[in-house]
Amino acid sequence: MDITAQDAVQSIINGLCMGGTYVLIGLGLTLILGIMNILQFAHGEVYMVGAFIVYLLCVLNGVNLYLAVVISMIATAVLGLILERVFLRPLKGVFLSYVCVTTGLSLILQTAVMLVFSKGVKQLPSLWGGSFSVGGMFISRERVVAIVIALLLTLALYSFLKWTRYGLAMTASAQHREGALMQGINPNLMSALVVAIGSGLAAVGGALGGSIFNLDPYMGGLAFMKGVTLIVIGGLGSIPGAVVGGLFLGVAESLLALFFGSQMGIILPLVLVIIFLLFRPKGLFGHD
Predict the structure, then answer these.
(1) By the 8 A CB rule, do 51 and 213 touch?
(2) What are the CA-CA distances from residue 125 to residues 108, 168, 206 (Å)?
(3) Within its chain, how far is the Cα of 35 from the centroid?
(4) DSSP of 167-199, one letter per residue?
(5) Is residue 239 within 8 Å of residue 171, measured between CB atoms?
(6) Residue 4 dihedral angles phi and psi, to the nearest 5°
(7) What letter does residue 90 receive in the DSSP assignment?
(8) CB neighbour list of residue 172: distance below 8 Å, 6 or more residues apart
(9) pTM across the whole model
(10) Interval 271-287: pLDDT, tens
């Protein structure tokens, strides 16, 4: 099969679009891990639940798509607060317990969605229908919108962490928990805030993925794997690392699928995790 320049450009755009959803997943995971020292195994299912909340509001009840995304973001943030207070906070420092509990939560959320919405692939409305031409190549509007939304949310999170009181407190907690505690920063408040923010970002990622691609009750497992891959590539607690890692992973997967078939795109995250753990365990932007 002959691959044209238009195919390559379209593949790169698709990769950037998917990479944007990876970034939204990875940012939440890396912040939760950095502040709470917990790998939230149910984070992928939060991503999935966020997408299905949009489906419930938009497809089944006629709510505007963008309004549904905002409502889903708020609803999953509340869900994150509940998960943090009831399940995650009591288990901080108990590795095996939180692994078992969060893994169980992921299965419970997955089963609940299957019972409510049934199995099968579903689709959300397009973010913005149609395409536009650039240099004779047609580019999908909805993919551009998804990339812009992901980057804007990333910039908003970066600004929050760098220039707000609570954001600076979260950064301090991630960098040195004991020092932050000595400065009067409430670790429980930081934990609740970071899980809520991470859950809200994941919900938007799920909505973008469900609109451009498909959504199903099993989509959270793959999303979680991609989020862990970003942590390994970018470095623990690094927002630039999560962004660069997510966009790189999305584009690399898309191009490999174009040139060598979809199976190459599927195994790429596993190969990257192995390579980075062997040769650069701190990631691209992590610190020793």
Answers:
(1) no
(2) 27, 37, 13
(3) 17
(4) HHHHHHHHH-HHHHHHTT--HHHHHHHHHHHHH
(5) no
(6) -90, 170
(7) G
(8) 179, 180, 183, 185
(9) 0.90
(10) 888 888 888 888 887 65
Length of the chain: 288
Structure tokens at 16: 């950037």
Q: Where are the alpha helices (DSSP H) in the chain?
A: 5-36, 43-54, 65-83, 95-117, 141-163, 165-175, 177-182, 187-212, 219-234, 239-260, 262-279
Residue ranges of domains in the chain: 5-279
Token pair 């020092």 is at which residue? 179
- Give the CA-trace dihedral at 225, 227, 228, 230, to 10 degrees: 130
Contact of 207 with 50, CB cutoff 8 Å? yes
Strand (E) or helix (H) holding 137? strand 137-140
Instruction: Find the mean pLDDT for residues 253-280.
Output: 81
| Residue closest to 252 by CA, chosen among 7, 1, 15, 88 | 15
In this structure, the dihedral spanned by the alpha carbons of residues 113, 118, 120 and 124, taken in order and rounded to 10 degrees, is -60
Is residue 191 within 8 Å of 35, Cβ to Cβ?
yes
Nearest to 239 by CA among 285, 204, 170: 285
For the segment 104-121, what is each residue's pLDDT rounded down to a tens digit? 999 999 999 999 988 788
Token duo for residue 162: 């760098």
Structure tokens at 145: 């919108």
C-alpha Rg value of the chain to the nearest Å:
19
Q: d(Cα 166, Cα 190) in Å, to the nearest integer? A: 8
CATH (residue range 5-279): 1.10.3470
In a 3-state reduction of DSSP, which class is residue 122? strand
Dmax (CA) for the chain in angstroms is 63
Helix (H) or strand (E) holding 134, with range, is: strand 131-134
Contact 44, 25 (CB under 8 A): yes
The values of phi and psi at residue 100, to 5°, are -65, -45
